[in-house]
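Re-run with default settings, no changes from the original entry. Doing this only to confirm the output is reproducible before filing.
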Amino acid sequence: MSNSGTLPRIVSFLPAGTEIVHALGAGDALVGRSHECDFPASVQKLPVVSRPTIDLDGSSAAGIDEAVAERLGTGDSLYAIDEVLLEKLRPDVILTQNLCRVCAPSGDELTRAVRKFNVQPDILFLTPRSLVEIDENIVAVGQAIGREKEAADLVSANRKRIEAVAAAVRGAAPRKITFLEWTDPLFCAGHWVPEMIALAGGRDELGRIGGDSVRIEWTEVVRESPEVVIVSPCGYRLEESVKLARQLPELSGAAIYAVDANAYFARPGPRVAEAVVLLAHLFHPDRVRWPHVFEPWAKIS
């Protein structure tokens, strides 16, 4: 598909996919979204094609973990797809993922939903575990929607920005970091996040580069004696992250920061380079400045 041709009709079940489409200048091609797709704000007017099957509003972190584990343990999905609406939207391209059953409908669920469509859409699975694979996802979306050049330009710009951060912190002693992707129970950093931490001049011994985030104990955090703790609960905005960060036990000698997890760490899309800048500024503020007036973090202690 060429850039001069008509853009395909796109449905995104994935917030990161929605952000990629917009970053490639194809936001007008989106015809449907998941209930979690909220950036940029203009996408919120789009029809919603998937919703959660359990109501977690107002639940505690522990309550959410328990409810999700129970649902997944029975083999049931966390999401319901509006198959009638999806068919009416006539998508040419569908963006989804197979990395995490908690993040979006799985490939199996989506395949079942479209199997009776008269015209089968192209289903693109965005399932990155590293920064390189995030770049590959951006390129793949560009190829699927006729925005190859824009995708290449975005990947190049992000890489240059990350390289500049890495150069700025080179020679500085790495800060000892603990990054928490959930707080009750505690989950360590996984997939692309430990890589981001390292590039930003940090070292997280509990993180799992390219691997799934797993449960850890507070005694492990204490044993690591981190200088900085980043509280980034998956799916949470800054205000919610702050509430959970304030519930953590005291940790002597550590600066604790709550961050906007949704915007910068839980979504493997165009904003990963800015997330590296954010971390580097928190770890080494004398070497890396934050380029915006707004601050998507809050210092708790």
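The mean pLDDT is 89. The chain has eleven helices and 15 strands.
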